[in-house]
Each structure stands twice: as structure tokens, then as C-alpha cells.
């Protein structure tokens, strides 16, 4: 007969919760939003804009790595955003073979609206959680450990 291992049970519960969050996030990402602009964006598009806005001049390869996407998937999203006038590709400064990515003025505006929307929604969500500051710190600490492990031992070994 197997002995119960409380730590293993907690880890399994944590993993189950990660999967549930992933499923919930995937469902939310299927519905595009305007974020108060005239641009209808899916979540992966708005978060791509945000990543480029936070790292002006990022290459497509760097963007793929940071967003845990294939280069092909990133290329498709970037091409859509370029066609819509939200992102600009420029020949790489350091390496002429790779494109650096920048937000256009329109892209900056849409990104600002998206970030504002997300901050408002996240603010409301966290207020409803009623976690203490210490509980929040512990939660963030545990999530960071899990993400670091995933990146070092699972994602990078693919």
C-alpha cells in the first residue's frame, strides 16, 4: 500500500491549478477586445504589442523566446500587426539579417489603451482576492520558483 505524501499531493494540486488557469486563459484569449480603440485585438496580439513596447528594437527571435512561441507563430502575429499599422520592422542595427521591431504611433496608442485596461481589470481582480501583502509575496515567490524551474528544465530542453 502507498503511503500518502502531503508534499506530493500539494504539488499535484498546484500543477492542476496551473492547468486550470491555462484552460481559463485560453478561453479568454479566444475573444478579441478593442480596449477602447478602433482596433480589435486578440490577447496574443495585444500582449505582443506590450512586449515590443517594453523592449523597443527587440528581434523576432528574442520576442519568440520571451513569449514562449515558435518563430513561425511569432512571424504570423507580427505580419498581421505590421499590415494593421501597429508595428514597424526595421533592419537590425547590430545584425542586418534580423529585423528589429518597434511600435508605430498608432501601435503605441493601442498598447497604452490595452495596458490601462489590463491594469484596471487586474486591480479589480486583486482587490476581490482579499489577500494580505504577505500572502501575495508568498504566492508570487512560489509562482516564480515554478516558472524558473519550467524555463530551465522543461522549456529550454525542448
Write a structural description.
This protein has helices spanning 6-29, 43-54, 60-67, 71-83, 105-129, 133-155, and strands spanning 58-59, 87-91, 99-103. With 158 residues, the chain is mostly helical. Strands 1-3-2 form a three-stranded antiparallel beta sheet. Strand 2 and strand 3 form a beta hairpin. Helix 2 packs across helix 5 and helix 3 crosses helix 4 (71-83). It is globular.
Determine the fraction of residues in helical runs and give it as a percent range: 55-70%
By DSSP, the count of extended strands is 3
How much β-strand is present in the residues?
5-15%
| Mean pLDDT score | 89
Major beta sheet, specifics? 3 strands, antiparallel
What descriptors fit this protein?
158 residues, 6 helices, 3 strands, globular
Topology:
Blueprint (H helix, E strand, L loop, with lengths): L5 H24 L13 H12 L3 E2 H8 L3 H13 L3 E5 L7 E5 L1 H25 L3 H23 L3
Antiparallel strand pairs: 1-3, 2-3
Quick structural summary:
This protein has 158 residues and is mainly α. Helix content is 66%, strand content 8%. The protein has helices spanning 6-29, 43-54, 60-67, 71-83, 105-129, 133-155, and strands at 58-59, 87-91, 99-103.
Amino acid at each position: 500500500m502507498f503511503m500518502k505524501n502531503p508534499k506530493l499531493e500539494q504539488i499535484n494540486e498546484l500543477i492542476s491549478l496551473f492547468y486550470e488557469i491555462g484552460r481559463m486563459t485560453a478561453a479568454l484569449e479566444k475573444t478579441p477586445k478593442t480596449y477602447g480603440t478602433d482596433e480589435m485585438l486578440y490577447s496574443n496580439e495585444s500582449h505582443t504589442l506590450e512586449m515590443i513596447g517594453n523592449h523597443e528594437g527587440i528581434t523576432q527571435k528574442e520576442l519568440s523566446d520571451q513569449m514562449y512561441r515558435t518563430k513561425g507563430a511569432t512571424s504570423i502575429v507580427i505580419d498581421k500587426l505590421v499590415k494593421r499599422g501597429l508595428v514597424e520592422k526595421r533592419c537590425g542595427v547590430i545584425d542586418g539579417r534580423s529585423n528589429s521591431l518597434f511600435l508605430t504611433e498608432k501601435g503605441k496608442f493601442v498598447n497604452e489603451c490595452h495596458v490601462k485596461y489590463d491594469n484596471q481589470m487586474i486591480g479589480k481582480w486583486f482587490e476581490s482576492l482579499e489577500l494580505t501583502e504577505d500572502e501575495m509575496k508568498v504566492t508570487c515567490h512560489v509562482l516564480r520558483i515554478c516558472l524558473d524551474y519550467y524555463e530551465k528544465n522543461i522549456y529550454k530542453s525542448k
